[in-house]
Amino acid sequence: MTAPLLIAQAISRRFGGILAVNDFSFEIFPGDVMGLIGPNGAGKSTTFNVISGFYKPTTGKLIFLGEDITGLSAAAISRRGLVRTFQHGSLLREMTVHDNILIGALRAVRDNAGREKRVRETAELLGLGGLLHAIAGSLPHGLQRMLSIAIAFAARPKLLCLDEPLTGLNSTEAAAALDVIGRIRGEYETTILLVDHNMRAVMRICDRIAVLNYGQKLAEGTPEEIRNNPDVIRAYLGDGE
Amino acid sequence: MRSARAGQIITALAAAGVLAFALLGDDEYTQHLLMWTALNAVLAVGLRFMLLVGETNIGTGAFYGMGAYVGAICTTKWGVPFPLALLAGGVLAVVISTGFGLVTLRTKGPYFMLISFAFTEVVRLIYTRVDWLGGNSGIIGIFPPQVLDPWMSVLTVVLCGGLILMMYLCEQSNLGKVFRAIQNNDAVVETVGIDVVRIKLVCLVIASFSVGIAGSLHAHIYNVISPGDFSYLVPVFALAYIKIGGDANVMGAVIGATLLTVLAQMLQGMGSMEHILFGGAIVASMLVLPDGLLGGAGRLLRLFSRART
């Protein structure tokens, strides 16, 4: 059995009197697409922020590639190969598509020719090949989302964490995004952690899913197991009282 | 692309013109005006350099003053050779700005601006309280070597031009792209593994080095310095140069500095009216030319070329 890529051991995060994430443990295995779902306010985004180093966990431990990364800065975690995107599309709005992706590749590739190649390849993969000189902020919403994934993927992370990559996309755009996520995983052997509200999509592309509710883990398993889990159905639909 | 090329050629021609003027001119007043302009241009470009990462660094005034004071002390008290006195200004500014940045650059926006404002005023007050630094009356008799007298304006133009060119080249490099990326969205920059605080520190140190050297030059050009020369007003005026010239480009800062330095000399006799007219000029340019003179000229050019086709 292969060792997990990321192990979260009983992580908690408290904001004043609110326990946003409580004693949450999970493992992500290399090559998997792991989904993190849960109702609004369940603690998904906080979990993302803790994993990526934007918040320090109040208690608990994070182990990435066998190394304890608890308390490291976001930049340091990113350099180890764990890169995230943000919920609301994270871009350098006033810069060109080319320069956006270049910033993503800057730390990972050390020579300029290699960087150019990386920028072009990443742009092609995400359907931005013809738009390298466009200003990021002027792109339509769907392409802005793609660009935010491109920035993160330009570093070729081992674990790519996507925070709601499909939210606000129409069905054509969402299908294209899912296709890209599939290629990132298949062709580049990237492990993916994904948060999204589009349940059908999550069920389709994830190998494993963890469900959060009120900051606590409600269930974890294959999409099939999650679909039939009575606790999950109750959390999403209410218990009929 | 073509307009960038044209801009470079125009800039090079202008620089050559200024240099020729410094070499050939023999009127002492205009030579001094030229040197003051050059110093103010470095201040404006140095302040703008940190605007690239999105921070308004009022500490620019403090680092300028430190350069001036250390340069003055090197020359008047220690007899250090002039080139080293200039360099000392830059080096001290680098050392102090490193410490200052390590402590303060975790803040940003208005918080950083306020801290850097307070820093500038505290440093100024320290000058007034330390007798060794001349207290309130400052230091007098700071002269460059006599052989340099006919060459001072050329030297100043070349040195200031060099510092501005250095900052311009930094801005054009990948480092400059990271600066602008931080200004756009620092969280994104952090997520791709770039240490934002460290890059901002690099930015601060480069700007402070330039301003520190300019400060030491200032001391040797004016021959007299006092604490009041290095208050928060120095960066505030520099900000006015940038806004009036146009902040999209280094040349905007240089043009703004030139225009306002000359204007200030023309208004010199007007007492407190000078500040009122200055303020009026800033408000007027914000209303009429929000992207500065250079931005306005660019729009006019585009308008003409569209009318022709």
Contiguous helical run count of chain A? 9
CA gyration radius of chain B, whole angstroms:
19 Å
Strand content of chain B: under 5%
Alpha-carbon distance between the two ends of chain A = 44 Å
Strand order of the largest sheet of chain A: 6-7-8-3-9-10
Helix content of chain A: 25-40%
Sheet bearing the most strands of chain B, described?
2 strands, antiparallel
In N-to-C order, the SSE pattern of chain B is HHHHHEHHHHEHHHH
Summarize the main sheet of chain A: 6 strands, mixed
Contiguous helical run count of chain B: 13
Largest protein interface, residues of each chain:
A-B, 31 and 17 residues
The oligomeric state of the chains shown is heterodimer
Q: So what's the overall shape of chain A?
A: globular
Within the largest sheet of chain B, what's the order of strands? 1-2
Poorly predicted runs of chain B are none
Elements of chain A, N to C (H/E): EEEHEEHEHHHEHEHEEHH
| Structural Rg of chain A | 18 Å
Kindly name the structural category of chain B: mainly alpha
Number of strands of chain A: 10
Shape designation of chain B: globular
Residue runs with pLDDT of under 50 for 5 or more positions of chain A: none
Brief sketch in words of this structure:
The complex is a heterodimer of chains A (about 240) and B (about 300). Chain A has 9 helices and 10 strands.
Structure report:
The complex is a heterodimer of chains A (241) and B (309). Chain A has 241 residues and is α/β, with parallel strands linked by helices. Chain A is built from nine helices and ten strands. In chain A, the strands form two sheets. Chain A has a six-stranded mixed beta sheet with strand order 6-7-8-3-9-10, sandwiched between helices. A four-stranded antiparallel beta sheet of chain A has the order 2-1-4-5, covered by helices on one side. Chain B is mainly alpha-helical and 309 residues long. Chain B has 13 helices and two strands; from the N terminus they run αααααβααααβαααα. The interface between A and B is medium-sized, with 31 and 17 residues.
